[in-house]
Design a protein that fits this description.
Blueprint: H1 2-19, H2 21-69, H3 94-101, E1 117-123, H4 131-138, E2 145-150, H5 180-194, E3 199-206, E4 210-211, H6 215-224, E5 265-267, H7 268-276, H8 279-287, H9 294-306, E6 317-318, H10 338-346, E7 350-352, E8 355-357, E9 363-364, H11 372-382
Parallel strand pairs: 1-2, 1-3, 6-9
Antiparallel strand pairs: 3-5, 4-9, 7-8
Bound molecules: 2-acetamido-2-deoxy-beta-D-glucopyranose (5 copies).
Residues 213-214, 216-217, 383-385 line the site of one 2-acetamido-2-deoxy-beta-D-glucopyranose (NAG).
Length: 385
């Protein structure tokens, strides 16, 4: 069709050219102009389409980059995402939870309209037999602490609504002691605690732990420290370096390898680093097999690798290994006395933000339920009431 039209037009033109040479020249001029402008405008349109496409692609890439690898350490202005849906109580996927926590703010000071809080995270087998002592510890300090309890998924007992532990259980999964499932439970606790933006420090405790000082002393000690209290040391013996496997290379070398107590206290930044770690988690799950135990080596090594300057390398939870054997000493009713407690409370020297102090431990384990009665009697002394 078009071709035909053009040919007839050209034929006509030739005819006219013969007839009226001057008019034909004008025709050629007009035709040239039309062709020129048509080509220019189509070029412009094509260019615009191309640029638009490029722009869209790069914008998408930027967005994608942001959600995948946003590092809240460098972008503290990110607002916290809504907490994950609690699917009928107990089944929030860990992946979903950790994705959410990977995006929460990590800054040291998080809010200024409220006090920073200390998150007390209880990793328990069943219930909390020493809870009356803890109730006394927390009394009158509402607003300065948060409580999270990870218990056996089978235990459904709820404390009375007057208790500080009322409705503090997080959706929990079965934990095998000494197995990677225990590490997962610790990360689950940290993830939940990180969702509360006012939580600034995070303590992991067991059901056999007791507080050694009153709340004010513990709170001040933790919130004023610039460093975390996560035990991390190089143990040259077989129960230290002997548990390292060269299969962890190139991610973890023998000189990176550390050991330490499971019972840690960390700042918000270190807590966020721990829950977002996938790399070392996978290395340890693959190559830390008995006699290597993830709960004794993974966090001490991880923190040594990624943020050593943020750690004091010591724990604030006292335990007695002096009796030897694979388990630390467990204390019962007859062990409890003021002298015994004061030796734990004030009987050692350590460094606190560069200063020497004799207050090195804020918590102690392992206390049998039979110690509750003497401890409750001693509480006014312990808490300097
Ligand atoms: C809940 O978790 C269990 C294992 O932990 C899984 O088998 C099950 O499919 C989950 N249910 C839902 C509804 O996500
Ligand atoms: C935070 O503190 C600053 C100064 O102390 C104040 O100007 C600001 O309004 C506060 N912001 C909030 C959200 O309270
Ligand atoms: C803790 O150990 C790391 C090395 O593992 C070191 O860089 C850091 O300075 C130590 N912290 C203190 C307070 O000594
Ligand atoms: C702690 O230090 C003080 C003075 O520096 C010293 O008298 C005391 O013996 C030390 N205690 C321990 C357990 O090392
Ligand atoms: C907490 O204990 C300290 C000593 O460790 C004491 O000076 C202080 O008065 C106590 N605070 C309260 C509120 O009991």
């Amino acid at each position: 069709m078009k071709k035909q039209k053009i040919t007839t037009f050209v034929k006509e033109l030739n005819l006219r050219m013969k007839k009226e040479p001057i008019i034909s020249l004008r025709y050629i001029h007009i035709l040239g102009t039309v062709v020129f402008f048509t080509s220019v405008s189509s070029l412009v349109i094509l260019l615009a389409l191309y640029l638009n496409q490029r722009l869209k692609t790069s914008l998408f890439l930027v967005e994608d980059y942001h959600t995948l690898s946003s590092n809240p350490l460098t972008s503290p202005s990110l607002s916290p995402p809504p907490p994950p849906r609690r699917s009928s109580g107990s089944n929030v996927s860990d992946e979903e939870l950790m994705l959410h926590t990977a995006m929460v703010p990590r800054g040291e000071m998080v809010m200024n309209e409220t006090h920073p809080k200390v998150a007390f995270m209880f990793l328990t087998r069943w219930d909390l037999p020493l809870s009356p002592l803890w109730e006394m510890f927390f009394k009158e300090h509402k607003g300065f602490y948060s409580i999270y309890v990870h218990a056996s998924p089978e235990s459904t007992e709820e404390p009375p609504d007057s208790s500080v532990f009322y409705k503090k259980r997080i959706p929990s999964k079965a934990v095998e002691w000494g197995k990677p499932s225990m590490m997962d439970a610790e990360k689950r606790l940290l993830s939940h605690a990180l969702l509360e933006p006012s939580n600034a420090r995070f303590v992991l405790l067991s059901e056999t732990c007791i507080p050694l000082f009153n709340f004010t002393t513990v709170y001040t000690y933790l919130t004023r420290s610039t460093r975390s209290f996560l035990g991390s040391f190089d143990d040259p013996r077989p129960m230290g370096r002997g548990r390292y496997s060269p299969k962890m290379l190139p991610h973890v070398s023998l000189s990176d390898w550390r050991k330490g107590s499971q019972w840690f206290e960390v700042s918000r930044r270190v807590a966020a680093e721990i829950v977002s770690d996938r790399r070392y988690d996978a290395v340890f799950k693959a190559h830390c097999r008995p006699p290597c135990y993830m709960d004794e080596h993974y966090l001490p090594t991880l923190v040594n690798k990624i943020c050593p300057e943020m750690n004091s390398n010591r724990t604030v939870t006292w335990v007695d290994w002096s009796r030897g054997g694979p388990h630390p000493a467990r204390f019962v009713r007859k062990d409890i006395s003021v002298g015994f407690l004061d030796r734990i409370r004030l009987g050692s020297n350590c460094s606190y933000d560069g200063e020497v102090t004799n207050v090195c431990f804020l918590f102690a384990r392992k206390f049998h339920v039979s110690t509750l009665e003497p401890l409750m009697k001693m509480a006014p002394y312990l808490f300097a009431l």
